[in-house]
Amino acid sequence: MTKRQKQKIANQEFARRIDLAFYDWRKKRGKDSNVHTLLEYLVRHNIINQTIINRWLCIDEYKAQLELTKKIRPHGNKQFAIWATEELLPLGETQIKSNIVNHATFFRDQAQKFP
Question: Are the C-beta atoms of residues 115 and 11 closer than 8 Å to each other?
Answer without folding.
Answer: yes
